[in-house]
Design a protein that fits this description.
The chain contains four helices and seven strands, in the order αββαββααβββ. Strands 3-2-1-4-5-7-6 form a seven-stranded mixed β-sheet. Helix 2 links the parallel strand 2 and strand 3. The relative contact order is 0.18. The N terminus is likely disordered.
Length: about 180
């Protein structure tokens, strides 16, 4: 794998849903509260239809970027678990935690305070308690998430970028949700 990480020479930049954002947005319903506990750079912002938008990210870079670019959103910088206080039947959560250690541990712009599988473990402990609808995003191969995305009965779907955008391959995002997901 070598330098194949965000912030390295081959990829550079900030990891996120850039290449699959529009496809993911098709599964996000109109809602009163839209919440991203791991907002990153808010890649889906232009697609969201919500009365209130809440972004959270522990990265100083992402926090400042979100505050500067999305004045219509409430932006916080706290542990992701705090964002679940917004839970209600009128809330939608897009949960996009760290997928791979190397994308974050070698990039000074990002924040990671635990291993990817530890994020997913905590998230999948919280999900059954939520009233809201939600989608959890992850890497399709689940190499570092220890199967937390697949080992349950929630709805699953892989969305792909239109073109081959990462090392000659399509970007692939695994979606897991308590809502119906279809390729329709």
């Amino acid at each position: 794998m070598g330098n194949q990480y965000w912030g390295g020479q081959l990829l550079g930049g900030y990891a996120g849903l850039h290449h699959t954002a529009e496809k993911i947005s098709k599964y996000i319903p109109e809602c009163k509260k839209y919440v991203e506990p791991f907002a990153g750079l808010g890649r889906l912002h232009k697609f969201i239809k919500a009365d209130e938008v809440f972004y959270n990210d522990m990265s100083d870079f992402a926090f400042e970027y979100l505050k500067k670019n999305y004045s219509d959103a409430t932006v916080t910088q706290q542990d992701f678990t705090e964002m679940f206080k917004h839970d209600s039947e009128d809330t939608f959560f897009l949960i996009d935690p760290v997928w791979r250690n190397e994308h974050y541990s070698r990039n000074s712009l990002t924040f990671m305070d635990r291993k990817p599988y530890e994020y997913y473990k905590k998230i999948f402990e919280i999900l059954p308690k939520l009233k809201a609808n939600w989608i959890v995003c992850g890497v399709a191969d689940e190499r570092q998430t220890r199967g937390y995305m697949s080992n349950h009965s929630y709805n699953k779907l892989i969305v792909e970028s239109e073109g081959k955008v990462i090392f000659g391959k399509k970007a692939r995002t695994l979606l897991v949700s308590n809502m119906e997901l279809s390729n329709g």
